[in-house]
Amino acid sequence: QVQLVESGGGLVQPGGSLRLSCAVSENILSIYAMGWYRQVPGKQREWVATLTNTGRTSYLDSVKGRFTISRDNAKNTLYLQMSGLKPEDTAVYYCNRPVLPMPWGQGTQVTVSS
């Protein structure tokens, strides 16, 4: 089955930047839309961004203009470039397919704090 491995998280000061990566074990990025999600302990997982197989993007209102979703089909990798980070962006970030989700990866922790 397809495996998702997220990486790139860390501790960053408010206003800082991070680039998250999601390595996908099969060549599906050119076929399916993929998305980023985040979850804070005690809360439901929240959708953050989607990139369709045709290249259309959509974003959660609170991250528009600050986050950019992209992919490298040759590397089977999905990215989330995050800038202007705020404390409220602190969460564990996951990638998955919006339609017919695959087994979730372990996620990558993003902590925004001074």
Structure description:
This protein is 0% helix and 46% strand. With 114 residues, the chain is mostly beta strands. The strands form two sheets. It has a six-stranded mixed β-sheet, with no helix packed on it. A four-stranded antiparallel β-sheet has the order 1-3-8-7, with no helix packed on it.
Shape: globular
Helix content: under 10%
Please give the number of β-strands. Answer: 10
Strand order of the largest sheet: 2-10-9-4-5-6
Largest sheet: 6 strands, mixed
Give the overall average pLDDT: 96
How far apart, in Å, are the first and last alpha carbons? 40 Å
Assign the structural class, choosing from mainly alpha, mainly beta, alpha/beta, alpha+beta, or little secondary structure: mainly beta
Low-confidence segments: none
Computed Rg: 13 Å
SSE sequence, one letter per element: EEEEEEEEEE
Given the structure, what is the number of helices? Answer: 0
What is the strand and helix layout of this fold?
Layout: E1 4-7, E2 10-12, E3 18-24, E4 34-39, E5 46-51, E6 57-59, E7 67-72, E8 77-82, E9 91-96, E10 108-112
Parallel strand pairs: 2-10
Antiparallel strand pairs: 1-3, 3-8, 4-5, 4-9, 5-6, 7-8, 9-10
Features:
mainly beta, single chain, 114 residues, 4-stranded antiparallel beta sheet
Gist of the model:
By secondary structure, the protein is an all-beta fold. The chain is built from no helices and 10 strands.
